[in-house]
Design goal:
The protein has about 240 residues and is mainly alpha-helical. Helix 4 runs antiparallel to helix 5 (about 200-235). Helices cover about 85% and strands about 0% of the residues. It folds into 2 domains: about 20-115; about 130-235, no CATH class. It has helices at about 1-130, 135-145, 145-150, 175-195, 200-235. Residues about 150-185, about 200-215 and about 225-235 have low confidence and may be disordered. Keywords: Coiled coil.
Length: about 240
């Protein structure tokens, strides 16, 4: 009985040993698989680490580039703001100058219109009542060229004595050239008359003829001036 019990226990122990060995073999296979997975995981980890380092380097480079771009952008913004301010100041200055020039232009236009109206009034007066303006010179010259005028002017024996000044009786305040030209013509006629007093009778007659011819020429000049003024007024 004791031998049978021992054999039974031995068989049980052998069966347990076989099961343990089979379990150990399974564990060894699992360990081998896990080792292979660990190796694969280690290689993947190295690859991931390299990628991480590359990405980190790219991140630092992009961050630096971003800071540089931000600095340049801020500089450009400041520069553009300064240029915009300068352009705004120039624009304001140009606007103020434009307003001043417009005011000056309006003043010049108003003065031009006033002169145009004055010229039109003067031309209308000359064309409407020419007897009040043009014959004054001819009548005065005819009076000066009369023989009796020589006796009315005192002779002092000095040829350098200033000649008398004859004023234009029909002077137009709105059209100065008419009066100015008439005064110049009258002064020149008076000078010629005074010179003729100290010359020979022939020279007196020649001066009378020249005075009459000069008055005729001046009358024609005044008519030409009137025509030119009317042409300017029409323009």
């Amino acid at each position: 009985m004791d031998s049978l019990g021992s054999q039974h226990e031995l068989e049980c122990l052998r069966a347990s040993l076989e099961e343990a060995r089979a379990s150990i073999d399974k564990k060894d296979a699992i360990i081998v698989e896990m080792e292979a997975e660990r190796t694969k995981s280690a290689s993947r980890f190295e690859n991931l680490r390299e990628r991480y380092e590359l990405l980190l380097a790219d991140h630092h480079r992009l961050s630096k580039l971003n800071h540089e771009l931000e600095a340049r952008l801020l500089e450009n913004i400041e520069l553009k703001n300064a240029e915009m301010k300068a352009i705004s100041d120039e624009l304001q200055t140009a606007k103020s100058r434009l307003q001043e020039h417009e005011k000056a232009l309006s003043c010049v236009s108003a003065e031009r219109d006033r002169y145009k109206e004055d010229c039109a009034v003067a031309v209308n007066l000359l064309q409407t009542n020419p007897d009040q303006f043009l014959p004054q010179t001819s009548r005065l010259l005819s009076n000066l060229n009369k023989p009796g005028v020589k006796n009315e002017i005192p002779v002092r024996g000095d040829c350098e004595q200033p000649s008398p000044i004859f004023q234009f009786s029909a002077f137009l305040p709105t059209f100065p050239p008419v009066g100015l030209s008439s005064i110049i013509q009258l002064n020149s006629s008076a000078d010629q008359l005074r010179r003729s007093q100290f010359g020979s009778p022939n020279s007196l007659n020649e001066s009378n003829h020249s005075s009459i011819n000069g008055s005729t020429n001046r009358t024609g000049d005044l008519h030409q001036m009137t025509l030119r003024k009317s042409t300017v007024t029409d323009l």
